[in-house]
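#struct-help
A.M.: can someone run this one for me? Single chain, 202 residues.
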Amino acid sequence: MSDSNRPINPSQLSHNLPGIQRHITTHDTTGLAKIYTSTPGQWSSLFNDTIALNVGYTTSFPPQMTSDADILDHEYVLSKGHLGLTKPNGTVCRFVDFSPGHKPVMHRTQSLDYGVVIEGEMELILDSGEKRIMGRGDLAVQRATNHAWRNTSETEWARMFFVLQASEKVLVGGKELGEDLSAAGEEKEALRQKEKGQREGK
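D.P.: on it. Structure tokens below:
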């Protein structure tokens, strides 16, 4: 349930879950650590408001942090709408909220993903038919595999935290397994357009 000490974010759809606060650190001119910003989560939605995403941070890899270059890059990428599911040659830190009854969407990204359940219970579904139930604190390491997520609750939203790092192309049996968003339907082209714009530096 939502914590009264952590009110929901203005754009948040999952009213049963607490809001997110992000704190970014930096250095003062003497090298001492300080807070750069503290801001509430900013959410966007997909699939008729049944999935909500909040990008915590995104960087190139390895990040360049001198003169806060990574922060400026993060702010630029988000302001231009250039971020897809992954960032080429970089990382993406993202919260994802799943509504009860959301239809799982099979997909694959060219990335190494760490996914942790932080609220509720989720089912991990692979294209082979294998499934695993994941509770709060459980971790999935997605190695560019084709997968989907299902919220097991029929009444409450669930939340996961992901870190995605772009990877080299994966070859299995001489076949290249690239990104596959075909099951995303109308959302597919919007995601790919964002990624195209990012690669072209638009």
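A.M.: thanks! DSSP finds two helices and 13 strands in the chain.
D.P.: also worth noting: Residues 99 and 145 are 23 Å apart (CA to CA).
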